[in-house]
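Re: the request from the purification team.
They wanted to know what the chain is likely to look like in 3D before they choose a buffer screen. I agreed to run a prediction and write the result into the notebook, where they can find it.
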Amino acid sequence: MQHGPAVRRRKLGAELRALRTSAGLTSGEAARLVGWHQSKVSRIETGTSGVKPADVRLLLDAYGVSDSQLRELLMMLAGSDDTGGRHHWWHAYRGVLPPTYRDFISLESQASAMRTLETTVVPGLLQTPEYARAVTRAAVEGLSEERLDTLVEVRLARQDVLRADRPLVLNAVLDEAVLRREVGGPGVMARQLTRLVEAARLPQVRLQVLPFAAGAHIGVTGPFVIFSFSNTSDLDVVVLDHLTSSLYLERKEDLQAYTEAFNALQIHALSPEESLDFIAGTAAGA
């Protein structure tokens, strides 16, 4: 269990080590190809030291890695501001967003799929502007209107991943409490529920409602997110949000446990079709 930057260094190092091995090179041979000392390659591969995006590019070239999507992902893990010519928009908000939130957004922007259990509020990727404003104001006390506007702007900008050329595939299980909790007043909540109905009809979005009638379930311990990447499962990560920070779980046993938990929640939840009717019915009565 570590914070985002450490997880990203370890994952990047492990992937670079695997690519070197696939290329049939020892760490010493790789170092000679790029003009480094062997110890630098070892430190990068073990995640004990950071690595510049330019250094990652050198190693990928030396290993003959031509997969543009994989190169882009590994450059992102190295902290590149510009991978494949695409600027990371959230860097413009460095003065506003804490590092853990920026880490989360960077993973979200590069992931191919996201599985999330939400027990209290609507997922950020599906929030309306009014709902996002009400949630942010409640979660962070003492916000100025200017800072509040900025945080809502970021929340809405994140939603572009669902409209990209290769959209993020979102699988969300929502506890019934998410639909029943009135956020921002009846009008705001009614429009938010309508937005969920619209989102549930998108081909890249799968929503399931876990009704109160399901009783106690494995998700009572709290919400979580699982990010998956199309290039390699070795980069998958679980994110747990806390009041002041986020924690990242990268061990295979942790990933397996949360994946099994999410699969169990999907089994106990209403089907996507039943969930759509349930949300629409809740909206009609809101």
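For the purification team: The chain has a mean pLDDT of 87.
Please add any questions underneath this entry.
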